[in-house]
Amino acid sequence: MQNNNSTFKPELQQVKNIKTVLIDNVYHIYAIRIDDRPTCCHNHKMQIKDYRVVKVLLPSYQGKKVILHLKKQRYKCRHCNKTLTSQISEVEKHSNISNKVKHQIQEKLKQIKSFKQIAKEEKVSINTVIRIIDKMEVQAKQDIDTSIIYIDEFKGNIQKEKYQLGMYDKDHNVVDILQNRNSQTIKQKITQLEIQPQIIVMDMFKPFKNTIIQILPTAEIVADKYHVIRQALWSIRDLRVELFNKDEKKYKDLKKYWKLLSKNPTSQFSDKQKKRLKKLLNLDENLKQLYKIIKEFYKMFEVRRHTTIKSKIEKVIAELIQLNIKQSIKLANTLINWKQEIINIIKYKINNGYVEGYNNKIKVIKRVSFGLRNYERFRKLIYLRI
After folding, report:
1. Which residues, in sequence order, are bridge partners of residue 70?
2. What is the CATH number of the domain that holds 171?
3. What are the Cα distances from residue 62, in Å, to 31, 90, 118, 122?
4. Are 303 and 344 within 8 A, CB to CB?
5. pLDDT at position 68, please?
6. Is 310 helix (H, G, I), strand (E, B) or coil?
7. Which of 59, 141, 227, 293 is the most exposed place for a label (fewest CB within 10 A)?
């Protein structure tokens, strides 16, 4: 056992530092509380009854744990027998962790760190970190612009609910994180917030659309461009998988070079990629035709006027129906059902890309939290870290 006197002396108010000892890489600070005797009945000063030693965790020093052994006076009124124990400003009553340590934990909860990592750094238990976040009052920003509301689901698996729903304002501030994506939950939240947005941006989940039409009939709905494009990519993917499953040997290259078919058809391809892509498309006529239509689909988002995109989307729908395979028909039906909302992407020039960035950050928060299941804690972490 290492036992050395140390010159390290933390700054403490109303405390007389007696000595500091380093034992097994832990600093032990032995001190006594200094205060004026309190008064009680008829303004008489109370008498010292006895002393009590309490242990208080202080902020680490040079990576080592620091424990304050504080000798505090207990007072007694000789008139009414009331007792009182002296306190210090560095620690709350009935707590053995200093306010500075609690503050450091609160600050680290804003960082992408697990409870376990924070506990290790601050020399406390994981349960202590959990108790601190449970007591924290964390709310979304109050000064928000709800003229435009973005809503998007993400897979959180919180308290038996597979999907949660993020709501964000015009300036990309978090409005709220809903526990599930149920229509009733959305209705209750919008009613509770008393908001009347003019524009709602959403992914292509039909219950969202039906709910908004019901409770906000005058709001314009804009489809999230990312999810619209994903529908097109899925049609190519589904056909590719179908062909491969039909004849693995003949269509083996569809599996090997699948990333080429998932790439934006209007983007730049190297000569090698062009040659390989041509070979892939020549494997099946339906695949070639569907890919050609999807390329036109991508190009329609390059137009600047919403009146122009209307004719282009109708042309794409007609070509998908004419191709008449299940993948093209499915995509055509989706575009028909969401035609106006897709046109509104160009009309209002709104991009929901930052929300996907938030969703990726939420996934990281979830991952470093090792499968956090408590909704309120998860919600607080999102408020703190986004």
Report:
1. 31, 54
2. 3.30.420.10
3. 20, 20, 16, 12
4. no
5. 92
6. helix
7. 141
Distance CA 78, CA 47 (A): 7
Query: H or E segment at 161?
Result: strand 161-168
> CB–CB of 265/301 below 8 Å?
no
Q: How many CB atoms lie within 10 A of CB 124?
A: 20
The amino acid sitting at 63 is: G
* CB-facing half-sphere around the CA of 291: CA atoms within 13 A: 23
User: Average pLDDT for residues 33-57, to the nearest whole number?
Assistant: 85
User: Does residue 122 fall inside a structural domain?
Assistant: yes
Predicted confidence at residue 5, as pLDDT, reads 64
Q: How many domains does the chain have?
A: 4
Residue 143 lies in a domain: no
- Residue 234, domain extent: 225-348
CB-CB contact of 165 with 187 (8 Å): no
> In terms of domains, do 234 and 341 share one?
yes
Q: Bridge partners of 32?
A: 16, 71
| Chain-centre distance for alpha carbon 36 | 49
**Statement to judge: residues 268 and 196 lie in one domain:** no
Query: Which pair of structure tokens corresponds to residue 338?
Result: 């969401």
Q: Look at the chain and count its residues.
A: 386
Q: Is residue 338 part of a domain?
A: yes
Give every strand in the sheet of 199-202, ordered side by side. 174-178, 161-168, 148-158, 199-202, 220-223
- Mean pLDDT across the stretch 22-36? 87
Domain-located, residue 294: yes
Q: Phi and psi (nearest 5°) for 81?
A: 65, 15
* Residue-wise burial string across 253-273, b where 16 or more C-beta atoms lie within 10 A, e elsewhere: ebeebeebbeeebeeeeeeee
pLDDT tens digits for range 117-130: 999 999 999 999 99
pTM: 0.81
